[in-house]
Amino acid sequence: MAARILDGKAVAAEWRREIAAEAAELERRTGVTPGLGVVLVGDDPASASYVAGKERACSDSGFFALDWRLPADSTQADVIELISRMNGDPRIHGILAQLPLPRQIDEQAVIETILPEKDVDGFTPVNVGRMLLDLPCFLPCTPHGIVRLLMHAGIATSGRSAVVIGRSNIVGKPVAHLLMRKAPGGNATVTVCHTGTSDLARFTREADILVVAAGKPMTVTGDMVKPGAAVIDVGVNRVADASAAKGFRLVGDVDFHSVSQVAGWITPVPGGIGPLTITMLLRNTLEAAKLAAGQHHPTV
Ligand code: GUN
Questions:
Q1: Cβ neighbours of residue 220 under 8 Å, at least 6 residues apart?
Q2: pLDDT of 96-132, one tens digit each?
């Protein structure tokens, strides 16, 4: 194997220690404990597992977490009413509505109910707009984690070619912006590929940094990667595996076996980007709590 592993889990543990120390210091100085309100609608096992991970991380870092589970047949009004209550709850500094929501619920309407100053996912139009304008805001967690991980590993982005596969609001669009903006971890020349891209390999082979958020296993194989590239695998896919205790295992969007022979750096799944997403959520919640305690505004 040629590639070096980008160990998101270890980096996340280091950053979480710093966050926990800052949270304790905030509480000591101001009496404010960072609080996260989480809404999970329905019983999708993958979403339930993500939410459990977020709650565990909160309690490990000394945060207060309030968790609301609504039945799968909840109405949009039910979810909006709950979020409105969280908007007015001074114990809650950050609100997270786990996506995707059931089909009968308009996701955008739910997102737009969250007060921008409690939008620790960075999904509201105010935060997305501020991000695009390079103004202080809450950055979306997965893209922020990716850029921070590249910086932590000393992988240069400035002047290099970055290719993003996927154009979702959660990952593809915002990570493309963070990689292109004129700031540390940015200043790359960014190409965004998606399901409408013909001859994906033509683009991926040019990438010094390849971010794969396609939502499909085996989207990228070794023959599609430039030797030495940094490959960031955002995918989390469950594939049936009778030999695994749970009957499935997690794989990314990248064929780890073949890509790790060619790439210079690669994130594993699990243990790569997932733990960093949760860590950046804690970071944003801490910043929201500082804001509520009259401290500085989070900066990009
Ligand atoms: N679903 C998948 N990723 C995310 C995320 O980062 N935040 C929320 N709220 N839902 C998600």
A1: 165, 204, 210, 212, 231, 253, 254, 255, 259
A2: 999 999 999 999 999 999 999 999 999 999 999 999 9
What pTM did the predictor assign?
A: 0.97
Which residue among 41, 51, 119, 170 is best mutated to probe the pocket of ligand 1, counting the most ligand atoms within 8 A of its Cβ? 170
Residue type present at position 31: G
DSSP state of 293: T
Q: Is the C-beta atom of 121 inside 6 A of ligand 1? A: yes
User: Among this protein's residues, is 54 annotated catalytic?
Assistant: yes
Amino acid sitting at position 1: M
Q: What is the DSSP letter of 222?
A: G
Q: Which domains does the chain have, with CATH numbers?
A: 31-115 (3.40.50.10860), 141-273 (3.40.50.720)
Q: Choose the residue to mutate in 38, 50, 68 for probing ligand 1, maximizing ligand atoms within 8 Å of C-beta.
A: 50
**Main-chain dihedrals φ then ψ at residue 134, nearest 5 degrees:** 60, 40
